[in-house]
What we know:
alpha/beta, globular, 8-stranded parallel β-sheet, Rossmann fold
Amino acid sequence: MESVSPTPHTPDSEIARLLGEMTLEQKAGQVLMLGFDGITLTDELRSVIADLRPGGLVLFERNATTTPQDLAKLTSDAQAAARVGGDPTLLISIDQEGGAVTRLRASRGFAEFPSAMAIAATGDAADAGRVGAAIADELLAVGINMDLAPDLDVNSNPANPVIGTRSFGSDPDRVAELGAAFIEGMQARGVMAVGKHFPGHGDTAVDSHVGLPVVAHERPRLEAVEFVPFRRAMACGVAGIMSAHIAFPAIEPAPGLPATLSARALTGLLREEMGFDGLIFTDSLIMGALVNEGRSIPQASAAALMAGADVLLFNNGSALHRMAHAEVVAQVRAGRIPEARLDAAVRRILVAKQRYGLLAGARPAAPEQAGAPERKALAREIAAKSITVVRDGAGLLPARDPAGLLVVETPQAAGLARALGAASVSIGAQPRAGDARLVMEAARGRTILVATSDILKNPQQAELVRNLRAAGLPVIVVAVRLPYDLLHLGDIPTFVATYQASEDAFAALADVVLGRRPATGTLPVAMR
Length: 528
């Protein structure tokens, strides 16, 4: 697609005019970014757009279950509904990180890209920029102008339950380099990037979708690790930064107060100390880190705005959206939130829309360009370059002859045996006591390739590998998601990482296992 760079940051009289013409209710709507159900512009969504006048919408995979043409019609119809009320073009965002967090799937006609950790395993920062640009073109094809990516978390905790391969790795400088390249590639194409999750979600053992994590590191450690990629992203002009629903006592001493609701974190640190003048986003305000801690979502929404957030992000639930909007309006009217704080947020939203050409109208979608062959080829290339042979002390690679292999497939690795052209035994994610015997009976002198996925959550997989090795069988372990599976396998001599379970990754793995190409990937995380 044609490259469209953002215009210079030049807030002018147009922004002042737009802001001056807005009622309090309209301004409160502009700071909302709303999720919704359905694959069409429903009457409910049309009503929400007409009544609340939101500044943006966020799409999830549930909104993209059909074709690129259908999705392009949805975004076009939503923009048309906003124009009926005379509102600025909507920010339309999505979480299209690649790997596990992918909303636009190859099975529906899109180019689907490897995870951030897979990109890092290629060893080439330019690959991150190429992927950022390619994802931007996929989004523009269906009328999406913002990506809630990249993940800038430094995944220093192997037990992290939610980041993992979404991160570029465990080295802060490398994460910063790759994150900046991704941002620059994406934004040069005209799509806004939003780095996440500030101040850093990489060293947590609690999923913030479920509960409230606490990162207890002192400020010097945060400066040396967690902050590094965010500072680099700001320096390269990232459009937005998303907050984390995580408590950082070194930043915010109030017990249990997450960064999303902390003025010290969002205004004091991010805005004033670090000098970030782009958009500050909340993570979804209906996540467990907030709602399971006794906070009402409308109150949390107003608190996040007061703390310094410019964009309040929600999943679905139009009744909830209306309550949050009413709460913001009520608190401004009561003086608990200064109207100047709301005005500052709306002004930044309008500046971002102006900078990316959205005040002049939405860029036309071109759904026929989704899934372009050159972008699918890039996805295959990155997958091929990322395959990492971490160990092969047993000399089992390459196996060369698929007839000499027996693949043990977990549900997450379905299709791997087919890619290898090998015999297989299918087991559950949590193998049963008798599965080792079944595998041994089927082996018949063949090398066993065990596909593992998330051994930390499924320790029975490690027990299966131990039983097979104890029986003297040759075993290749392939971690089809997290390379940290290695930490649970002791002295396993042959171990390969793919960083994702996808058709492209399995095809690339088959080429390595069968000796058709060498493995060139390098491990982007420390194993400890």
